[in-house]
Amino acid sequence: MTVPTTDSTRLAYRAWRPVAQPRAYELVVDRIEEQIYAGVLTVGDRLPAERDLASMLGVSRAAVREAIRALAAQGVLASAVGAGRDAGTTVAAMPSEALTRFLRLHVALANFPMPDVVDARVMLERGSVRLAARQRDAEALRGLEVLLTRMETPGLDREEFNDLDSDFHIALAEAGGNRLVADITTAIRASMRLPILQSCQATGAWRQISTRLCRGHRTIVDAVASGEGDTAAAAVESHIRYAYEALLYTR
Amino acid sequence: MTVPTTDSTRLAYRAWRPVAQPRAYELVVDRIEEQIYAGVLTVGDRLPAERDLASMLGVSRAAVREAIRALAAQGVLASAVGAGRDAGTTVAAMPSEALTRFLRLHVALANFPMPDVVDARVMLERGSVRLAARQRDAEALRGLEVLLTRMETPGLDREEFNDLDSDFHIALAEAGGNRLVADITTAIRASMRLPILQSCQATGAWRQISTRLCRGHRTIVDAVASGEGDTAAAAVESHIRYAYEALLYTR
């Protein structure tokens, strides 16, 4: 909860805990981020030279360099060497992969309870298929059809099935046309890759489970193709809940 | 779309683009992340010493140091100096703030279309209020009530109103009890802070708009308190859509 409390409560609470002293480079990172949030720095803009930044912010050039490296590692900044027009450090459009990677790490380490991850997927994918059913994009539907057919190949390797399943859910999210939602969905599915794969490999009921998963996919795609958003939403929810029941809660 | 293509198409596509040569530290980052995804490294685990990692991976100690710094900047690793039991680099539980910060940067830079951001919020918050209506947690409801009352204070500063509004939506997401969803909702709301604030400050119809926003909040909280999930979901959707209509699409 973020209900503000009085200043004295807050002070008493903070009183004798260890002081977190931010390092110089962290302060530089904060300043650069502030400029981005404020819209002053935007994609493609060049950062001032290292020397100038250091003197403006009153920190060492090493601190500036470390801040730039940390932000570059996250895809926020891009550096090019040389002295030409393209040299220097610019603000980058963070690629979807950066978000996927970060969210995947976060889900892996923050140790969210499995039912929370399932509910999050349900919320997002219900919304995506509703959008997809409104769009009924022919190319997206063809792509989903290709994946369905491949997943129905008899004797398909479990790891390949799992990867195609992941592709299917990403394609479904993309068929909704909302890139932010598709990025988050992709990240959550990717973070679950390993536990899902391990369960696929461990289960003794693989044939029944995979058949039922494929049937679930067909029901979703049929509903999307005929523009029935409510049916598609219900179908994707029961499909996701079934998959986790069958694969992850039983271990 | 992630429909796999044939190898020759893929090769032709990649043929004459610049070669992206990963730097040594990036390869070290990849290796550490693989261990995390595989569940070999988990929260609290200690990384091998810098010297050992460098020799095992066949890279310089500088590359290992840079990788550790980049991951520490993202909250994945924590380093402690000294020689005691707690010294060394350990895997950290990434805090919610790290995700919020990253997603906020991503939304700011990836430049998602506004309707996509709105739809994402609608999906997540519809889901959250449904969960909240099922829980009807007394403490969460009291917290929401406190925020509502503060927002209804006549003559409240627009910036303060905006911050309380943000707190309200975060508290609503937390009342659903799903931390992953709450984290994502918080991040998306935070990424919109500036444009929403600017619109609040620019509009000539502030009194009507803020009154209607407060009424929307009341309707949501009432529905949650009486356990009516469907009503709460409909109310939060129309509230969010109204806010963006009134504040952001009209500029």
What does this structure look like?
- 2 copies of one chain form a homodimer.
- The first copy, chain A, is mainly alpha-helical and 251 residues long.
- The first copy, chain A, is 69% helix and 3% strand.
- The first copy, chain A, has 12 helices and 2 strands.
- Chain A has a two-stranded antiparallel ribbon with strand order 1-2.
- In chain A, strand 1 (77-80) and strand 2 form a beta hairpin.
- At the A-B interface, helix 2, helix 4, helix 5, helix 6 and helix 7 of A face helix 2, helix 4, helix 5, helix 6 and helix 7 of B.
What is the strand and helix layout of this fold?
Two copies of one chain form a homodimer.
Chain A: H1 7-14, H2 24-37, H3 50-57, H4 61-73, E1 77-80, E2 88-91, H5 96-110, H6 114-135, H7 138-151, H8 158-175, H9 179-191, H10 193-202, H11 206-225, H12 229-247
Antiparallel strand pairs in A: 1-2
Helix pairs in contact in A: 2-4, 3-4, 5-9, 6-8, 6-9, 6-11, 6-12, 7-8, 7-11, 8-9, 8-10, 11-12
